[in-house]
């Protein structure tokens, strides 16, 4: 799936007639989410980078770097300010990544499954919102979000394939991480 540099959105987007509050919220939260994902994978690589699972984590991280690059571009194109919580997500993401990796490969993969499942569900909600608004008007943004959702699903599946469900207290860990993701999404959309 994806991962290569995705150049679907031109820098000359017609901003007339867009639903500003919806687009601002979507781009702000997605930028924050991709930023947080980058920090999670950075934390995992700090702990497990030289282990057998290091190349797998690096591969997923590379895709997240592409996602973040694209949302950095979209922030400029659509003139959206980032969340003021980025410094917090910087630390929280790295701590979550490193902390889950300290549980070993299975812990890191459990974190990946929890986060990527939350994010792909979140992207699905955004796709529904944009389709209800005007699928033609938001065609390029829909393409980007769909591609990134598919990448996140792929990361989820990689986590499952690499024994995420065998992590210590998997269901508790997954639930706690997903509650954190919901809170991060809620806050990053608004602040």
UniProtKB/TrEMBL annotation:
InterPro entries xref list: Ferritin-like_SF, Ubq_synth_Coq7
Q: In which pathway does it act?
A: Cofactor biosynthesis; ubiquinone biosynthesis
Among the Pfam families in the record, one is COQ7
Q: Which SUPFAM superfamilies match?
A: Ferritin-like
Give the record's keywords alphabetically: Iron, Membrane, Metal-binding, Monooxygenase, Oxidoreductase, Ubiquinone biosynthesis
**Any idea which GO molecular function terms this record carries?**
3-demethoxyubiquinol 3-hydroxylase activity; metal ion binding
Superkingdom per UniProt: Eukaryota
Q: Which GO terms describe its cellular component?
A: mitochondrial inner membrane; nucleus
Q: Which GO terms describe its biological process?
A: determination of adult lifespan; regulation of gene expression; regulation of reactive oxygen species metabolic process; ubiquinone biosynthetic process
Note the PANTHER family from the entry.
5-DEMETHOXYUBIQUINONE HYDROXYLASE, MITOCHONDRIAL (PTHR11237:SF4), COENZYME Q10 BIOSYNTHESIS PROTEIN 7 (PTHR11237)
Query: Which protein, by its recorded name, is this?
Result: COQ7 protein
Q: Which organism is it from?
A: Eolophus roseicapilla
């Amino acid at each position: 799936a994806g991962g290569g540099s995705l150049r679907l959105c031109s820098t000359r987007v017609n901003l007339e007639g867009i639903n500003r509050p919806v687009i601002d919220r979507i781009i702000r939260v997605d930028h924050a989410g991709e930023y947080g994902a980058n920090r999670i994978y950075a934390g995992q690589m700090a702990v497990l980078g030289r282990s057998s699972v290091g190349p797998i984590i690096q591969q997923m991280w590379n895709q997240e770097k592409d996602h973040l690059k694209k949302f950095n571009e979209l922030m400029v194109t659509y003139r959206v300010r980032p969340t003021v919580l980025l410094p917090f997500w910087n630390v929280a993401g790295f701590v979550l990544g490193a902390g889950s990796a300290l549980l070993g490969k299975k812990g890191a993969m459990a974190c990946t499954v929890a986060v990527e499942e939350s994010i792909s569900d979140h992207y699905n909600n955004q796709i529904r919102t944009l389709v209800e608004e005007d699928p033609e008007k938001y065609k390029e943004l829909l393409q980007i979000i769909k591609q990134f959702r598919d990448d996140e699903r792929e990361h989820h599946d990689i986590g499952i394939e690499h024994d995420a469900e065998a992590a210590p207290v998997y269901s508790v860990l997954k639930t706690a991480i997903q509650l954190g993701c919901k809170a991060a999404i809620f806050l990053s959309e608004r602040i």
